[in-house]
Amino acid sequence: MRAICLYLHIHQPIRYREYSFFDIGADENYFNDDLNGRQSNERIFLKVAEKSYRPMFNLIEKNLEKHKGFKISFSITGTWLEQAEKWAPELIEQIKRLLNTGRVEIVGETYYHSLAFFYNLDEFNAQVEKHAKKIEAVFGVKPQVFRNTEFAYNDSLAKWAEEKGYKCILAEGWDKILGWRSPNYVYRPAGCENLKLLTKNYRLSDDIAFRFSNRGWEEWPLTVPKYQNWCNMDCLRGPLINLFMDFETFGEHQWKDTGIFDFMDGFIASWLSEYENQFVTVSEACDLMEPKDEISMPETVTWADTERDLSAWLSNDMQIAAMQELYNLREKVLASKNEKIISSWGCLTTSDHPYSMCTKYWNDGDVHAYFSAYASPYESFMYFMNVLRDLEFRLDQ
Question: How confident is the model at residue 78 (pLDDT cuts 50, 70, 90)?
Answer without folding.
Answer: very high
